[in-house]
Amino acid sequence: MLEPDQNSRHEAGKEESSQTKWQRLWRQPRARYWFGIPLGGAIMFVAGIIFWGGFNTAMEATNTLSFCTSCHEMSFVYEEYQQTVHYKNNSGVRAICSDCHVPRPWAYKVIRKIKATNELFHKVMGTINTREKFEASRAAMAENVWEEMKATDSRECRNCHTLESMNLESQDKRARRRHTLERKLKKGETCIDCHKGIAHTLPEGY
After folding, report:
1. Rounded to an integer, what distance in angstroms lies between the CA atom of residue 123 and that of residue 117?
2. Do the Cβ atoms of 160 and 99 come closer than 8 Å?
C-alpha cells in the first residue's frame, strides 16, 4: 500500500503523463510528417479512382445484352424479344434489356442491381429453369415489372420516348388521343398502361 506522499506523487505523475500525451497530440508535427500527409492523400485518391473505375466497369458489364441473355432462363424471353420492334426495326435503333429494365440515374441503378441479387437466388434454386416453370411464373413476373414501371411513371420508356418529341400528326387517331399531356394528367396513365407485351409475350389471359 502506498504512503500518502507516495500516493500524491503517483497521482501527480499520472496527471503529468496525461497532460504530456495531450500536448504531444496537439503539438506541431515534425517536418517528415508534413510530407506523409499529402502522400497519403494522393495514395487514397488514386485508390479511390481505381476502385470507382473497377466498380463502375463491372456494373456496366452487367448491362450488356450478352450478359443479360447468358442465363438459360433468359433464352425463353430472348426468343420473343428478337421478334419485336425493339430488337429490329426500320430505323436500326435497338433497345436492349438494360434500356428497359435498368434505370440510368446512378442511385436508382445501384438499387436495381441490389434487387437483382434475388434473381441469383432463384437461378440457384432453379425456380424457372424450364419453359414449363417459366410459363407458370410468367404472370407474376410480368405483373411485378408492370407495377414497378407504373410506380416510376415508365421512367425507362422515357429514356427514348417522350411526348414532346412525338409527331402526333403521323399517328393514328387513337394513338394521337392517348399521347396528349392533358390525357396523361387527367387519367394518370403512363406508357406501360397501354404497351404491355411490347417486348415479351403477354401471360395467358391478358
Report:
1. 10
2. yes
**pTM confidence score:** 0.71
Task: Say how far apart CA 107 and CA 97 lie, in whole Å.
Answer: 19
Contact status, residue 142 vs residue 196, Cβ threshold 8 Å: yes
At residue 164, does pLDDT exceed 80?
A: yes
Q: Please give the backbone phi and psi of residue 197, each rounded to the nearest 5 degrees, phi first.
A: 80, 15
pLDDT score at 22 = 60
d(CA 122, CA 133): 12
Neighbouring C-beta atoms of residue 59, cutoff 10 Å: 14
Q: For 118-143, what is the mean pLDDT? A: 92
Element holding 201 (H helix, E strand):
none
Q: Return the closest-CA partner of residue 131 out of 68, 70, 74, 69.
A: 74
The CB-side HSE value for 23 (13 A sphere, CA atoms) comes to 6
